[in-house]
Amino acid sequence: MGCFLASLFFACSANDKKEQKESCTTTTSAINPNGDSELALLMRRLRLNTDSLKQLIANKEGNISDAYIAELERAHSAIPTDPNVKTPEFTAFNDLIITQAKALQNASIENRTKEFNQLINSCVNCHLRFCPGPIEAIQKLNIVNPI
């Protein structure tokens, strides 16, 4: 729901919460000219970082990082486009994704592909309930033919 690379970029670095809220709540983009929420921006970063992680896992060159897991945890506090999204069900899905990410982090190199694909499936399950638009792109993150 992206975890894992040499570096992760954080959308907000403002010191006070009011300034942070103003700078992160919406940002215009080509995808959504009306503005993107902090949660939407976070999800896009996670997707890009997950694609990079996919390559590391598939090539047996790396694994998910603490920084990636921290980004997943930010979904709990990130401001969504629709405030009604932040339900106990959303929190439960996010907790499951974080648990799966930690399982990947602790997996042996032989089991990382399986654990990675389970992480992707956890993301898809959440998106089936809350935001189905990116499901096809998320499913493409599965590792089909590992080395």
Could you explain the architecture of this structure?
By secondary structure, the protein is mainly alpha-helical. The protein has one domain. 55% of the residues lie in helices and 0% in strands. The chain has helices spanning 17-24, 38-58, 66-74, 88-106, 112-130, 135-139. Mean pLDDT is 82; it is low at 1-28.
Task: Output the keywords.
147 residues; mainly alpha; 55% helix; globular; disordered N terminus
Brief characterization of the structure:
With 147 residues, the chain is mostly helical. It is built from six helices and no strands.
Number of beta strands: 0
- Supply the helix-strand structural class: mainly alpha
Judging from the principal axes of the Cα atoms, what is the shape?
globular
Give the biggest beta sheet. Answer: none
The radius of gyration is: 15 Å
Topology record:
Blueprint: H1 17-24, H2 38-58, H3 66-74, H4 88-106, H5 112-130, H6 135-139
Helix pairs in contact: 3-4, 4-5
